[in-house]
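PROTEIN DESIGN WORKSHEET
SECTION A - STRUCTURE
LENGTH: 181
TOKENS:
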């Protein structure tokens, strides 16, 4: 995997996979997603995670909890398109726990590290899947396209899926402490 300085896009995928399909999903995702993406231009690697518990806190997960160091950034540090009067920092003393907010929404996550945005990534993945499963039309006669067959085979076995793409503006490396970007 290239160094973080080479990444300029991250694609986060969130999956809600029923527990009965976890082993199937892990194997399928490796063979039918990661293995295909690894062959595509700009793909630098993928990390897959099972949503962890939160061992540092006991009890139910709360979305908002006290955190004495939380502070809203002063507005003079924020770049606006029109000038604004600066406002003093505001201490909120709370933190929003996104894991708790989404704790019942996803079971697995994947992060794809991209060295260059690939505008055809989705289409190329479908094409790679169709090559890997050249018999898709026979196996899914009611599906007119490979994308439909892929949806029937893969996405029908999960409760939900969504992805978020981030352009990486800069990376601070631990070795140098330098902000790159």
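SECTION B - SEQUENCE
RESIDUE ASSIGNMENT:
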């Amino acid at each position: 995997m290239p160094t973080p300085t080479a990444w300029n896009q991250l694609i986060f995928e969130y999956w809600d996979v029923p527990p009965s399909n976890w082993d199937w999903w892990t194997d399928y995702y490796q063979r039918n997603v990661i293995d295909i993406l690894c062959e595509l231009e700009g793909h630098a690697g993928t990390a897959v995670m099972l949503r962890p518990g939160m061992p540092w806190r006991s009890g139910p997960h709360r979305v908002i909890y006290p955190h004495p160091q939380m502070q809203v950034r002063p507005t003079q540090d924020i770049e606006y398109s029109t000038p604004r009067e600066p406002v003093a920092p505001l201490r909120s003393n709370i933190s929003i726990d996104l894991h708790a907010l989404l704790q019942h929404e996803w079971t697995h996550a994947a992060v794809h590290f991209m060295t260059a945005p690939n505008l055809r990534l989705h289409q190329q993945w479908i094409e790679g899947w169709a090559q890997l499963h050249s018999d898709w039309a026979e196996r899914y006669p009611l599906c007119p396209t490979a994308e439909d067959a892929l949806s029937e085979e893969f996405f029908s076995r999960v409760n939900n899926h969504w992805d978020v793409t981030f352009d990486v503006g800069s990376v601070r490396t631990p070795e140098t402490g330098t902000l790159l970007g």
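SECTION C - NOTES
Residues 4-51+106-180 form a domain with the Alpha-Beta Plaits fold (CATH 3.30.70.100).
The first strand starts at residue 9 and ends at 16.
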